[in-house]
């Protein structure tokens, strides 16, 4: 039998609990960033009327649904 003092046992349990909470936080952060990256993949902003719209086609130039201007695809930047 291994003898462990009460303070060492409390430290071990607290370390395991905090490590578990940290892993859950990392998983949640990874999922949130992945979801945000997927949500802005097809989002475009018109250069003429500044309308943000979603275009899921593979065309190089996307047509704005509001003003009809052709917009070049670029990486959408978020703040």
Q: Can you characterise this structure?
A:
It is built from one helix and four strands, in the order H-E-E-E-E. Helices cover 43% and strands 15% of the residues. It starts with 5 loop residues before the first helix and ends in a 7-residue tail after the last strand. The protein is rod-shaped, with a radius of gyration of 25 Å. A hairpin with a 6-residue loop joins strand 3 and strand 4. It has two domains: 1-39; 42-79, no CATH class. The model has no long low-confidence stretch (mean pLDDT 88). The longest helix is centred in the first third of the chain and has 34 residues, at 6-39. It has 79 residues and is of the alpha+beta class.
Short description:
The chain is α+β, with helices and mostly antiparallel strands and 79 residues long. It contains one helix and four strands. The protein is rod-shaped.
Note the topology.
Layout: H1 6-39, E1 43-45, E2 52-54, E3 61-63, E4 70-72
Antiparallel strand pairs: 1-2, 3-4
What's the average pLDDT? 88
Instruction: Describe the global form.
Output: rod-shaped
Strand content: 15-25%
Order of helices and strands: HEEEE
The major β-sheet equals:
2 strands, antiparallel
- Spatial order of strands in the largest sheet: 1-2
The total of beta strands comes to 4
**What structural class do the secondary elements suggest?**
alpha+beta
What's the alpha carbon Rg, rounded to whole Å? 25 Å
The helix fraction, in percent, is 40-55%
Count the helices. How many?
1
How many domains, in number, for the residues?
2
Low-confidence stretches: none
Q: What distance separates the N and C termini?
A: 57 Å
